Amino acid sequence: MTPIRPFFVAAILLASLSACAPPDANTATVTRGGLNAPPGAAPDSCWGKQTRPAIIETVTHQVMLQPAELLADGSVIRPAVFKTETRQDIVRPRRESWYQILCAADLTPALIASVQRALTARKLYHGAIHGQMDRATRAAVRRYQKPQGLNSNLLSLAAARQLGLVAIAG
């Protein structure tokens, strides 16, 4: 039996760590008004929260500690001494944004079937019209909302209104 080499162990650990990375940079959570909802949310409203993670960049640069000593003719007596400094800069800060969604009680099979028909008409959904919020329907909802700045598979109230499925309060 041959021993496991440290290189292979490191490669396996690196591969397993990369599998832990989230597939999407944005994450969404669902809350009801009053339970970890945005300030001023109505108690009977439902909300999604999209979190855009910060982007941090590592910057490395050289700092001169001592300049070079030169003769009058320009020849170097003693070269300059440098130190390498590394720091991390926040390129884009973390941001959380709230958006109102339809509550679970509002997502009836009839409404979901209407969502599927509306997304089919826009060539975003290609499945059967069955009134279930399945993976294909959620993916189509994400494709519809993403160009509008909402990278979520939760149907926002604004998107439902744009699709003509929910009345605009007035």
From TrEMBL:
<dbReference type="InterPro" id="IPR002477">
    <property type="entry name" value="Peptidoglycan-bd-like"/>
</dbReference>
<dbReference type="InterPro" id="IPR036366">
    <property type="entry name" value="PGBDSf"/>
</dbReference>
<dbReference type="Pfam" id="PF01471">
    <property type="entry name" value="PG_binding_1"/>
</dbReference>
<dbReference type="InterPro" id="IPR036365">
    <property type="entry name" value="PGBD-like_sf"/>
</dbReference>
<keyword id="KW-0732">Signal</keyword>
<feature type="signal peptide">
    <location>
        <begin position="1"/>
        <end position="21"/>
    </location>
</feature>
<feature type="domain" description="Peptidoglycan binding-like">
    <location>
        <begin position="112"/>
        <end position="151"/>
    </location>
</feature>
<protein>
    <submittedName>
        <fullName>Peptidoglycan-binding domain-containing protein</fullName>
    </submittedName>
</protein>
